[in-house]
From TrEMBL:
GO molecular function term, any single one: oxoglutarate dehydrogenase (succinyl-transferring) activity
Family: Belongs to the alpha-ketoglutarate dehydrogenase family.
InterPro entries noted in UniProt: 2-oxogl_dehyd_N, 2oxoglutarate_DH_E1, DH_E1, KGD_C_sf, ODO-1/KGD_C, THDP-binding, Transketolase-like_Pyr-bd
Keyword hit for Cell membrane: no
Protein name: oxoglutarate dehydrogenase (succinyl-transferring)
Cofactor list: thiamine diphosphate
Keywords per UniProt: Oxidoreductase, Thiamine pyrophosphate
UniProt xrefs under Pfam families: 2-oxogl_dehyd_N (PF16078), E1_dh (PF00676), OxoGdeHyase_C (PF16870), Transket_pyr (PF02779)
PANTHER family tied to this protein: 2-OXOADIPATE DEHYDROGENASE COMPLEX COMPONENT E1, 2-OXOGLUTARATE DEHYDROGENASE
Annotated organism of origin: Parachitinimonas caeni
CDD domains: TPP_E1_OGDC_like
All copies of domain Transketolase-like pyrimidine-binding, residue ranges: 593-790
Amino acid sequence: MMKTLLSHSYLFGGNAPFIEELYEQYLADPATISAEWRDYFDKLQQLPGAADRDIPRAPIEESFIQLAKQPRTSGRSAAAESEASRKQVGVLKLISAYRVLGVRHASLDPLKRMDLQPVPELDPATHGLTDADMAVQFNCGSLVGPERDSLSNIIARLKQTYCGNVGVEYMHITNSEQKHWVQNAFESIRSTPAFTASKKIRVLKQITAAETLERYLHTKYVGQKRFSLEGGESMIAALDHLVQASGTAGVQEMVIGMAHRGRLNVLVNTLGKQPRDLFSEFEGKSSLDLPSGDVKYHMGFSSDIPTPGGPIHVSLAFNPSHLEIVNPVVVGSARARQQRRHDRTGDQVLPVLLHGDAAFIGLGTNQGTFNLSQTRGYGVGGTVHVVINNQIGFTTSDTRDARSTLYCTDIAKMIEAPIFHVNADDPEAVCMVVQIALDFRMKFHKDVVIDLVCFRKLGHNEGDDPMLTQPMMYKKIAQHPGVRRLYVDKLVAEGLMTEPETEALIQAYRAALDKGEHVEQTTLTDYKRSFAIDFAPFRGTHWAHPTDTSLPTGDIQRLTEKFTKVPDGFKLHSTVDKVLAARRDMAAGKAAVDWGMAEILAYASLLEKGYGVRISGEDSGRGTFSHRHAVLHDQNRERWDQGAYVPLRHMSENQGHFLVIDSILNEEAVLAFEYGYSSSAPDELVIWEAQFGDFANGAQVVIDQFITSGETKWGRYCGLTMILPHGYDGQGPEHSSARLERYLQLCAEHNIQIVMPSEASQMFHALRRQMLRPYRKPLVIFMSKRLLRYKDSMSPIENFTTGAFRPVLSDPEALDVKKVKRVVVCSGQVYYDLVAGRRERNVKDIAIIRVEQLYPFPTEELKAELEKYIVAREIMWVQEEPRNQGAWHLVRHRLENCMRPKQTLSYAGRPSSASPAVGLMSKHQAQLKAFVEEALSFTTK
């Protein structure tokens, strides 16, 4: 077989690099090369022993030896030719080893604490190369540079590229174009920056500003926490370069997310926050009038910064101390801004995330965020990640306790993102890496990671003594002169600046700080940017703002005709066909309107008026309970993009955009993304739907730190809607309760809205009200699963053509109000259990009222309803949740405020329980029967 393969005249040793390139393509995707070469490599893979080799390229290496035997010149023996070929193969293997493992010998640690561990693959001897070969000329394969070079020069080039102050990881990328691009980017310049004198001076100014601000704050506000950047000052130079280069590349908005390490420095030296405003915050004052506010190192900021390519709007997102949780929020905000600009590729809006080393790999948020990055509903064209790698995490300097991987950035390999490690003591290398990272992102629209290896000069905060846990590390840090000092020495040695000139930079910066000002104006103060959001219409509004959310009959029928129509030749599933036919009957008034129709009708009407609608969740297209059917699937086509039809995208020519997406299986990252999106898109109805209400448990930090408190802490308006399936139907503990009590406990200052609708039309009006009202607060809908197909909860078409959302629903039974002794108040689906029980018992002296909105509590509306029952002496709250859960303890005082003197308040429901619900249907039914009996049994005393 080998003889046949070697019969081609073009197969000789000098063509080894060409064959190597072809073989790499073959490994990545055999379909990308010609059939002749594919057949050749297929046969090589079948050679004896090929499957047992460790290196994927092993089968071809033996072929190189054979290929090299093909004569180009005469005069050498077959043995000599074979040995030369083996050496050539060894050189190619050495080049490959440096590309894969050179990072292991890169000079990345500013503290130089750890000895480099031997990497046999980087030793020429491992590949059969000796000192005698150093002067021998070899073919360099795909190594960028001269085609042939001496072995000593090849090794020098490899070390300079892969083992200097920059370490590159990219060989895990399977896309050949991306891999070769990164390879060329670093090998073509040998990872060596070449900046102009003016750029170097700008870098020094940035580092000077970073260091001087930290030292100024350290002496002026002794003992106050600020989470100093000292040891990582190169980050400020990196951000400056990123902003300027992004503007040059055409980026018009940048959204930054970061935790508290170095945040104050970024606020002042990157975004241009006035130092005097920062000092006021240190002194306990703030220019923001917020109900609660937040600590200074959680605050956000935005500004317009001039760049060679024009102004760029830079926003730093607000963030709590939950570190990486801000990341999906930032990415969601970037997606909303891109949507507003019709920026389909992400060329105009760039998300940037700054991470801590331990948090980057330790917090699961990033796994979810990475997993979102290349999906259709959440992609933003790539994010630039910068890890501020203090090599310590919180107090854990031993990586055996901090992670189970070699590098903290290894998590990024899950999406094959390139990873650029760089020694933060070399600010020029840092800026060079930033430029390459940005170029990669802009070309391939994919995430890229920069690992800025530095140190933390002080403790976790300024009151922490790191010598308690890292004595040897901090002895090294104490001896470190600081990145500014090192860079000054370099520039002075190059003759670019004198020592007095560098000191003058410090003095000028300190003098400006004494005045509470900046040294030079770095932001635009009068720039009027396009696509800015005006939140003024939403300020000072009230939840009860009168809003007509009804829809004329003609509009309902016209919209229904559109969203029940499918393209010619589109084969519907028989169940979906029936659903669409039923919706046409509902619009015509021939049948009551169910919940799925109510939802779709609300979306269609909003879309036609120009509002965008975005729905995400783990099964949102169909609906977890198969009720929505917003995406229709052709039963005769396999591919989603060919076999799916979304009727709500075809409502009118100038309609709002509609996206319904089945999300990844991660509640925390997805809900945080949707919060960020909604906060930047007040004119869109943004909905996150939990597959079951208790799935939101996995996103509790988003609910606590952003959704319910973002406005009071940071002044951030957000109209995000959450749909949480909730209801006790005997299905066990996990899928009964959406933990209503948790949300009610978080209610204050009209921060969110909580509704538990019991009729389909109420769902319709709640969704429309959320957009048509000039009121932007999060809306949490506790939606019953059972009622989706429960006939009594369906609504006549008249409930859609008139009226609005009703916070309180009166008893529809024609009771004699003078005979009613007890008024039962409830929310949600339990109403229908109570009605059925009352009917069975023929009870006439108990009224049942529904509170459809639990917060803001409709005190006036409920009080007016209770006033009707002039002789009722008892008000009873009934719920299906256990007594210690549900709404009881959190609405009790509100109910008392609605009662008349001498009326008593009582409770009926399941007994207190450590579990949300029982697991046996028999026990569920027994509990239901018991509390319904208690609610409807009334003995006159």
